[in-house]
Amino acid sequence: MITFEGAAKLYPDGTVAVDDLDLTVETGQTTVFVGPSGSGKTTSLRMINRMVEPTGGAVLIDGDDIRGRDPAELRRSIGYVIQQAGLFPHRTVRDNIATVPLLLGWNRSRARARADELMELVGLEPSQAGRYPHQLSGGQQQRVGVARALAADPPILLMDEPFSAVDPVVRASLQDELLRLQADLHKTIVFVTHDIDEAVRLGDRIAVFRPGGRLAQYDTPENLLAAPRDAFVESFVGYDRGVRRLSFFPARDLSLREDVVFGDGTPVTEAAAVARGKGEPWVLVVDGDRMPLGWAAADRLDRAPAGAALGSLDLAPYGHTFDVGADSLRAALDAAVLSPAGRAVGVDSEGRVAGVVTQDDLGTALWSVAE
Ligand SMILES: Nc1ncnc2c1ncn2[C@@H]1O[C@H](COP(=O)(O)OP(=O)(O)OP(=O)(O)O)[C@@H](O)[C@H]1O
After folding, report:
1. What are the extents of the domains in the chain?
2. Over the stretch 187-211, which tens digit does the pLDDT of each residue have?
């Protein structure tokens, strides 16, 4: 547990970088510091490893004031990852990762074996061990940075905008990797970003900083999106927070309709009668394995040649599907919005159709979330 007790940083030029910060970072969780530029996130983060000394208040780790700790020894027990990785350019990937173990006095072969193990953990190829940082992509360099920070298995990991310098696709995969790693390792992670989406994705808890180095709100991602404390937090989390909040609700609670799903061998007349009877403007056509083929508009069914099967019609693309067991309400809504039929196709983990969600069903689910 890391505790900020009235921590403050006043620079000699009069800048208040951090103002009276009271905050507890829970052990084994990911806590994200988010806020606009200059709001004191990095300064607060660096107080934890004594790269910045507070001018007021204190920072405690597991109840002990860190002013009682030797800074060099403290830093060896806290992993630190920064933007653009900050790797040593003249050391190989393996030697970069082995830095802290070697400082701790491990022998070379043990440190290198640890480096190889970590490369695998963060998704780097063994063949990259002998390369130099400039021979890697930005995303690979960040992976090396994470591996280096984890090398001595520190209980605390500080990450200062570690993924900001890479493109959005690589960034998303680095975020996935971090979530996967954290599910195994349960480190106490403090992560700085100015990107609220990254914060919501990664954080168990989020501290929103406001200009002047003050804490605006400290909450779970879900509560932050549901109930921003004031106008500043609301504008910072974004006015589309309602839709983004849907990612916290599972799609599995949606009611799925199977009565408008038909095999491709079904006679058009049969599907038309069902669609007419239920007042459904679209039916979904699937193959023998229940894989989706496309939508058929009910009014076109009436005009199809007598005796035709659904599979012989021109079908509208079914668009995105959502995984009923794994995805969120947000994914289901997205699938419906992008579907030419305005309906979402729910599938199982194998991609087989589980059912269709109509706008009415989605509307009901959205209302229940709002309650
Ligand atoms: N050495 C320094 N001397 C004077 N002011 C400083 C110093 N270091 C940081 N500051 C100021 O302290 C404030 C907080 O800076 P900090 O880097 O903590 O913000 P941040 O929220 O991490 O911003 P960013 O997202 O841009 O990295 C800023 O106004 C910054 O200019």
Report:
1. 2-245, 251-370
2. 999 999 988 989 999 999 999 999 9
